[in-house]
Every structure is written in structure tokens, then in C-alpha cells.
């Protein structure tokens, strides 16, 4: 079996771990053709393994006693997240599947009219954000838990021959509605263009969203002296200093002539 065929067989179930350092795992010197370099070895991980070890990489370690490089897996330790950091508000496209969504927005919009001392549009947006966050947590609920509860309910209904068929069919419709909401949620998070709305795969979208989350993680920053820092407080100061220097100028432009025109 060729390497291309093998890759096509494995890729739906496995992922090649990210490689750092030299891209080659084998080399040999030929008297007339010089040294040949080839990447013969790779490290694979399953879909279930990758989220448990985010940031795992493979390094090709040169060996003095072999023409094959050793593959070393690196599992970096992640810094604990600060608990006081609240995630920003995001609109969830899956809310549109729920008929209660329009009522929540309408009530929040009308309530914003009666808040004083601020621009109306800001009142509207703030009120909608707060009401949607509360509704999502209290009433809309966790998608996975909703699906699990309905599936458990369906199993109970199917075991009772005394119940009417319409109860079973209604529960199945509810499950399909939540499954559609779950796929919409992961589709929104994945930002992936290979699969359209008509060809959904929740596991695939979950993996793509997890990969994107890993790419967005800032593990450290260099200050203006080239020193590497990983603690949150120092990185915040580096960002503030950088943007403060951008918006400062040592040679302000005299705009009086422009202002006096006309």
C-alpha cells in the first residue's frame, strides 16, 4: 500500500501530530550523490487522544548510533486559566431554532427604552446581551444535556406499550431539533468551509473548533528587550506598552493652518 493510500485510510480516524525541528527522520550519505534526507516516520493520534493532550508535538532527535532519528513526544504543561476572566458575549446561531428567542429579544429591546442616561442603542444592545445570556443559561440550557435527557425519555417511552405513539413521535422531533441545534453550534465554532450546512458531522466540527481554540492560545510574549515572558500580568503590560507607543508621536503636526482655511 502506498503512503498516499495509507494516509487516505487513516486520516478520517487519526491525525498526524505537529512536528518541530528537522523535518526528516532518516538520512544516509552516498559517496557520489551526497547525503539523502527522507521523512519516513510519523506520529499519529486519535480524535479522542488529541483533546486530552493539547499542544502535543513531535521532535526528531538525531542519534549518533543510527541513521534513523528518534521521535520524542512533547506534552507541554498549560498555565492555569484565570477564573475571573469572563468569556465575551457571542451570538449563537442555534438560538434561531427556538421560537422563544424572538420573544426574549423583543422584551429586552422594549425594556431598553426605559433605561436613562445612555444612548438608546447602547441600552438596547446591553439589555439584549444580558437577557440572552440569562435565557441561554436558565431556559435554553446545555445542548448535550438536553439531548441526553430526551434520549433517556425516548427509551422509557418505547418500553411502555400503554403510551400512545404520538408521545414517542413528539419526543423524536424534539431530539432531532436539538441535534440540529448542536450541529449549528459546532458549525459556527469551526469556521470551516470544507463541509456545507447540508453535510454536517458533529464530531468533525468539534475537532475543528478545538484546533482553533488551541491556535488562539497565547503561551508567551517577548518584551522590547527580547526576553520571553509567560505570566499573564507581564504579557498584559507588554501589550499595553506596545499599543501605547504606537499612538504616541514625538513630532506633532501643526494643524492650525488647516483649521484656519475657509
Describe what you observe in this structure.
The protein has 262 residues and is α+β, with helices and mostly antiparallel strands. 45% of the residues lie in helices and 13% in strands. The protein contains 8 helices and 9 strands. Strands 2-6-7 form a 3-stranded mixed β-sheet, with no helix packed on it. It has a two-stranded antiparallel ribbon with strand order 1-5. A two-stranded antiparallel sheet has the order 3-4. The protein is flat. Residues 1-18 form the signal peptide. Keywords: Signal.
Strand fraction: 5-15%
Q: How many DSSP-defined strands?
A: 9
Tertiary shape: flat
The parts where pLDDT drops under 50 for at least 5 residues are 192-198, 258-262
Structural class: alpha+beta
Mean pLDDT: 73
In helices, the fraction of residues equals: 40-55%
The rounded Rg comes to 28 Å
Q: What is the CA–CA distance across the termini?
A: 80 Å
Assembly status: single chain
Order of helices and strands: HEEEEEEEHHHHHEEHH
Biggest sheet, spatial arrangement of strands = 2-6-7
Largest sheet: 3 strands, mixed
Number of discrete helical segments:
8
In short:
Residues 1-18 form the signal peptide. The chain is an alpha+beta fold and 262 residues long. It has eight helices and nine strands.
Per-chain topology:
Layout: H1 3-10, E1 14-16, E2 18-20, E3 26-30, E4 34-38, E5 44-46, E6 57-61, E7 70-74, H2 100-112, H3 120-140, H4 143-159, H5 165-190, H6 202-215, E8 221-222, E9 228-229, H7 232-246, H8 256-260
Parallel strand pairs: 2-6
Antiparallel strand pairs: 1-5, 3-4, 6-7, 8-9
Helix pairs in contact: 2-3, 4-5, 5-6
